[in-house]
Structure formats: structure tokens, C-alpha cells
Amino acid sequence: MALYVKAAEILEKAENKQGALKTLVYDSKFKNIKQLFALVFETQKFSSILQEIIESTKLLKQTKLSIHLAKVLVHDLLMGRGLKCGGSWKTMMMKHRSRLQSVLARMKVKQGVSKNVDLLPAGTVGPAGVRLPRYVRVNTLKTTVDDTVDYLKRDGFSYLGKASKLEDLTLKAKYFVRDLHLPEVLVFSPKTDFHDHFLYKAGHIILQDKASCLPAYLLNPPPGSHLIDACAAPGNKTSHLAAIMKNKGRVFAFDLDAKRLATMSTLLLRAGVTCQQLANQDFLKVDHDSSQFKDVEYILLDPSCSGSGMVCLRDDDSTADEEKNQARLTSLASFQLRCLNHALKFPRLKRLVYSTCSIHSQENEEVVTACLQQNPCFRLVPLLAQWPERGLPPLNQCLRASTDKTRTHGFFVALLEKYTDAGKTKQEPEVQTSVPEETPQDLSQGEERPAGEERPAGSEEESEASETDDKPVAVQTGSTPGKKKRKKKKKKKKAAPVE
Fold first, then answer.
1. Edge-to-edge, what's the strand order for the sheet holding 185-188?
2. How far apart (Å, rounded) are the C-alpha atoms in residues 357 and 359?
3. Interval 437-476: pLDDT, tens
4. Most confidently modeled range among 75-89, 349-363, 451-465
5. Rounded distance, CA 347 to CA 289, Å?
6. Strands 226-229 and 250-254: what pairing?
7. Which of the residues 213, 357, 371, 398 is marked catalytic?
8. Catalytic: 357?
9. Calpha distance 353→234 (Å, rounded)
């Protein structure tokens, strides 16, 4: 029984974006880690199919089980090697076994398949599918990249230097490189496990996908800043922001889920973060005019999304009801737009990063386009000219990430910047990120102009559906207002009069 309770708990956390599946399993300290991981991984893979079976048989109503507990039990009953528990749970599940099997059999007949695995959509990633590298972010609050590299070399790993191309991220066991885009990210072979490693337990390294490191890296708030992490849990981005700020300043972190916030508090403690102020509160209800937030100049907004970019949470469009799926995306996009509009109301806001782990344009480019149309005093900032995957036209200033083009989970990032009253953008100090300046004409043609170094700094699924306009945005699409050159007056000697 303990196995199923723990598996249901981890499945719920994973589906709520409370952490990576493997990390959640290892952090649980369950006695049989391999057994737990196998159950949760397989249940998550068949999640949409199990959901359909459970709904068709009205199992929750008849058993009073939670959806996540029902999924792990039904998985083992129908697709595993049988239930590994006895007592009342086994008796209850065996009572419904024939009906559950009948629904599964009908699904196979309908799709013309004989195996359970054939019910999965073509894009579902299994153990033999896409293997993403193991990304590790060095926590600069506790150590340096150089010291971490030296420690790992002494621990038996072979360092190959900084990667120069995407192919360099294909590594064998015990080899690692420094990432080609993010200087504080180290890359290892997919099977490398750090959950029991000293560096992980001591908070010197954070196990975080490369794409998930982009939002804080691109916002890049200077030390001493006041900023908001609007939907903060499980806290990896929050700890990254604190590291960039060197723990100087204030990070206001909000999350509606108390359990997620508790997990986040533990993570931040291990990471050595001291500049945070956590609040179990809906970000949409935060008063942007409160004196508490009068100095907030940066916001990181990573709201609830479909999770369609996560390798283990691919949308199952082939089995899900199309209308139901579309309604969910519409609801999410409406919620995301409300969050964006609310965030842009903070009076001293300079820059905001909007990110999702979704591959759907409805949650990404369409939300940003609608937001810019409703907030004409903000523009998009072009990001990382060397990044291989851009936002969908005309928003090619944004970044996208995917398993094939960036060797990461699917992701989307946009950086919005506020204009001054004079119509010119606020000046920011330079950072390590190279961004191109673009004009509206350049963007419409999908071309980029070369430029020098410039600083690219900086709930619940609710609300009714709102329509978004997919037309290109005029001045908001990353154009840089022209600057008048000041002519220096030179003093000239008066010439002698000519007679």
C-alpha cells in the first residue's frame, strides 16, 4: 500500500510541474527506489489512456479514490504484473477488474492494435526514445564552475572543455562538457545520476533542464534588485535568480499551492538562498500598487501551462477528445494572458520574462501578441542571436526549445521591455548575452541585423476564454527607436574682417 500512496503523491507533483520525475522519486527516500520509479514512469506514460478508462467506468465515484491513486492502481492491475498490495484495496480493485479490462479491450479494437504500448501516440517518448543529456546548473551561491569542474575530475569524470556545437552534447558515461550557450550549465550523458552525489546533496549543483535555465539567465537582474517570481514553485528558477543577484536584493515568490511552496522552501534552504520572501498567494490577487512592491523592476512569469513540451508529459492528441483539449488550451491561454496583463501593471517594472514548457503557439506567441496589443508601452527584446530555434513568425525575437533542435525539453521564452515616456527604452548595463537589434521591416522578412553586446535582462487554470489576435504587432515587435545624435558645438575663432 505504501508503494501506491507514494507513487500517487509523486505522480501528482510531477503533473503539477513541482519537479522532475526522477528528482521527485529520489527525494522521496522510498525504500525501493527502482520499483517506485518504474511504476510512476509507466503510469505517467499511459496517463491519458488510464484517465479515459477511469472516466468510462466511473471508478472514482464508486471507489472514492483520488485520480492519481486510481491511475497507479489501474496501471498495475491492467498493464503491470498485478497489484502488489492486499487487503481492502485489492479486494476493491478486483471487484471492478472485468469492467476495466473491457474498456481497455474496446480501445484496442477501436484503434486496431493488440498491445497496450500501441495505444500510445507516435510522439510519446519511452525508455528507448529520445535521450536528453543530463544538465546540471552550478549553484554560484555556494561554489564556482571551475571548482565544480575540478571536483568532478577528481571524482573520476573526464572534462572535454566547452561545447562548440550541438553535437558535442552527445556524451558517453563519465564524460562532460560546459554548455555552449549557458556558462553555468554542465552537460553529462543521459544516464548520469547525481541524486546521491555530494555536490547535489550539499546544494552545490541543481539538476535543471537547460531550457528551464533560460528565463532567469535572460532576465538577469543585477544584485540589489527587487523582483517577483510570480508562479515560483518548485523553486529552481527562484534559486537561479538569487544566484544571479548574489543573494543581494529581494525575490518575492508566489505560489497558490501550499505543498509546492513547502517543497520550494526546502530546496531554497539547501541552495543557500537568503533573499527570498515566500507567499502562499494567488499572483492575480497581489496588489501591484502596494508599497511593498514599489521597487519591483523585474518579473519572471512561468504560469501554469499544458506541459506539452515535457518529454514525459506529451499531449496525447490522438486519444484525447479534440474539443476537450482545445477548450483546455483556450482556458490556459486566457489565464496566462491575465497573468501577463496583471504583471505589467507594477509601476516601476522594467523587464519581464514570460516562459512556458509548452509547444503550443496558443499558449506562447498568441498570448504574447495579445498582450503587446493590449499594452503598447511594452516591446519584445531580441534574445540570443546564436540560439538555433526562434519563436514563430513574426515573433522571432522570442526563443523556442525542443528535443531535436536544442536537445532540451520543449520550451518558450519571451522578454518584454517597457518604454520610457519619451519613447525610448530604458538603458540597462551590458551582460554576456549577444542580442541583435531588429527593425519592423527586418522582422517581417524574418532577417536579423548584426548588433553588438546588449543586456537582455530584464494559480489555478481559471477565467473565461479570451480571443487573441494573431496579427503581427507593429512597434512592439522588438524595433529599437531611433536615437538622435547630439551634435557637439565646436568653438571657432572669429575671423578678421575682410575689407
1. 158-162, 175-178, 185-188, 134-138, 205-207
2. 7
3. 333 333 233 333 333 333 333 333 333 333 333 333 333 3
4. 349-363
5. 7
6. parallel
7. 357
8. yes
9. 18
